[in-house]
Amino acid sequence: MTFPKAEFTFTRWGGGHYRAGMALVRILVDGYSLLHSWPELARGQPRHSAAARDELIRWLTLYHDALGTPITVFFDGQGKGHRFANARAKAGVEVLFSRTGQTADQMIERTVHNLQPYGEVLVITDDSVERETVGHFGGMVSSCLNFIQTVENTLTEMAEDIKQHNRREHYAFKKGVSRSPRV
């Protein structure tokens, strides 16, 4: 089974756009920016609620599982009482909350700068100032809408691939043909 390769329209510092399907060092997500752009998540829940954050983290974990690229989600706020922060890091999705006097944007900018020597970093945000700053630091940026479409398309394609794989395996099993490698 092959997993789909993520393709984004990236914006580079200076305004140029290009499409790429590449390995990224990390995807950095402005959590509340993405939540506000994805109203289908946790319908009826306030965008700053724990339920909305949990649902966003669940979808990002599924996306990480499909691609394998580590994801860090940044939220403004101290994160007191947020039980999922450490548990999700083990699943490839790290959740960070800013401290008092610090913003999620500042954390994202510092992370982009620190990861620059290791390869490409993609930041997901609709904050135009943040997009410009990240581009200046050498990071790639994607709008929240573009990222949402990519996540939904990737997970739909993966589900279809799994469904087809299971059908082939079921058919082969019924015919008495072993298609799975022996262990």
What does this 3D model show about the protein?
The structure is a single chain. With 183 residues, the protein is of the alpha/beta class. The protein has a single domain, classed as Rossmann fold (3-Layer(aba) Sandwich). The protein starts with 7 loop residues before the first strand and ends in an 8-residue tail after the last helix. It is globular and about 65 Å long. It has six helices and seven strands. Strand 4 (71-75), helix 3 (85-89) and strand 5 (93-97) form a beta-alpha-beta unit. It has helices at residues 31-37, 50-67, 85-89, 104-115, 128-136, 144-175, and strands at residues 8-11, 17-20, 26-30, 71-75, 93-97, 121-124, 140-142.
Sequence stretches where pLDDT stays below 50 over 5 or more residues: 1-22, 83-88
- What is the annotated CATH architecture? 3-Layer(aba) Sandwich
Secondary structure category: alpha/beta
Q: Strand order, biggest sheet?
A: 5-4-3-6-7
Outline:
This protein has helices at about 30-35, 50-65, 85-90, 105-115, 130-135, 145-175; strands at about 10, 15-20, 25-30, 70-75, 95, 120-125, 140.
